[in-house]
């Protein structure tokens, strides 16, 4: 099990909970990642007291609704270059970057206080695979297109696809995290997008229904 050095004493139980959650998600044991994930949560709690980065303030609720919810999509994602649009406090991007240090995970948000936090988190957690982008999504022009665009409660499915289509490679994937599969949204995808699969997410400790929708970009370069 990972060392609990530099973590609040109350976080020891969360190391065990992470180990159990990784089994549920089908992920390999990773003590180094567990340590960093909890360091991120401690940092988020500290900054949240002053900067109001997330409405969730209860420690256990933050662990389940922010950390585990973000990690639940990890088994399904593919691609080496991902961008988390409307990342806010780095969810799900920072947990994914911690879990996959071999992948580039860029974090985009237009809120300056949130991107200041992300810059600090990147530095303190040593996330060399992360780039923080203080931009409006429609104005950001990447030098190279992404393999995948990830969003968590960012916008409606239709808006997400239209606002981010210029970021995604041909035949790359959108990964939309939703509280539920909205039939109306799925039924009215634009002509450049094709829904491939809907994954039902099992988040330990969370009673609410969560899904991940995978959509292919049919638009050629």
CA-to-CA gap between the ends? 46 Å
Low-confidence stretches: none
Name of the CATH architecture: 3-Layer(aba) Sandwich
Q: Evaluate the radius of gyration.
A: 17 Å
In what order do the strands lie side by side in the largest sheet?
A: 3-2-1-4-5-7-6
Largest sheet: 7 strands, mixed
Q: How many structural domains can be distinguished in the coordinates? A: 1
Q: Counting H and I runs of at least 4 residues, what is the number of helices? A: 7
3D architecture notes:
The protein has a single domain (9-217), classed as Rossmann fold. 37% of the residues lie in helices and 23% in strands. It is of the alpha/beta class and 221 residues long. Helix 1 (12-25) packs across helix 2, helix 2 runs antiparallel to helix 4 and helix 2 packs antiparallel against helix 5. It is globular. The mean pLDDT is 91.
Write the layout of secondary structure elements.
Layout: H1 12-25, H2 31-51, H3 59-71, E1 81-85, H4 93-99, E2 104-109, H5 112-125, E3 130-134, E4 146-152, H6 157-164, E5 168-178, H7 183-187, E6 193-201, E7 210-217
Parallel strand pairs: 1-2, 1-4, 2-3, 4-5
Antiparallel strand pairs: 5-7, 6-7
Q: Would you summarize the structure shown here?
A:
With 221 residues, the protein is α/β, with parallel strands linked by helices. Helices cover 37% and strands 23% of the residues.
